[in-house]
Amino acid sequence: MVHSILDEHFKHPSTLTQTFLIHGLSLNLTSNSPHISGAINNLLGHFRSRQVRKDPELRFYLIQSPLSNVWLLPMIRKEGQLLYDSEEESQFNLSQKMELHLKCFSWKELFVVDFGSNGLLVLDHWGGVGAGWFPDPSSIHPDILSNFIFLIGLSELLRSRDLYLIHAAALARDGKGVLIPGFTGSGKTTLSIALLREGFQFLGDDRTFIKKEADGLKLLAFPDELDVTEETISSFPEMKDLPEDAFKIGPRKKKFWVDRVYPGSMVNRSVPKILLFPNIVQKKNSQLDPLSKAQAVERLLPHSLLVFDGEIAEKHFHLLCHLVEKMDCYRLDFGKDLLHVYKLVDKII
Prior knowledge:
The protein is α+β, with helices and mostly antiparallel strands and 349 residues long.
């Protein structure tokens, strides 16, 4: 059904198709909006392929179009089974964080993410197809368009191909991975920088892939820009000395690429070893405390993105439990000794 709806849109000469190779999976993104294409290219730039694939495993169509052109929308809103409403499911606080209200439906064999007047995503995850219509994409900040709206759909399609996303930073030392889940204000990015400057390698700051391979679970890279506050910048000498053009202005923070400050630090994969939940405290010294596996799973679950399909959700949950079983789990009370906290992590890794 997604295919038949989309056919009429992509004969237009203004559409552009880009291919991305994400850890072995090919994704074609087709759009008629430079604003959308630019936002997604910035998110997935590390995975950009020079050659467009004719038969990719995954396809995404993101179109600037009035919602009145989507003839199935009234039926979805009337007949679809409501799975999630961001204004009611307050534990995620998505409406407030993103200033964007969304509802998720299942309808026939499709999953639908309805952003009201801002747009619509339709997902055929078993077919590997996602489609989105947006009346005025330029009114949506590029970071919200890519890191939130598009990523909801992308993560669902990737999970159907056994590649799982989690909201967490990831670093490595000698091939051993440190996974750091954390919401805004937890110290996740500051801790990542504190480790990077001491020789740890970088997989990602805000999201990381998890995949079960023949020789076991792996953390796979999702390189992205680091979001930093002025306070974080002032905490590290090498960042204070950067010229202003080294940073890009995001919706709430500044952004910079790791290679600009810590060249040669990026790595593609690691074996999961340490699961670390940071918590900023007003103390002189940081402290590590072990967590039980049950506590770690409970803390990790809120850092998974929305999962629509029941079968995929079950697989995702079992994967996270397996991940926790393979890792040493800790809570880190992150104090004022941020230039020396790496010593604690070195001891446990």
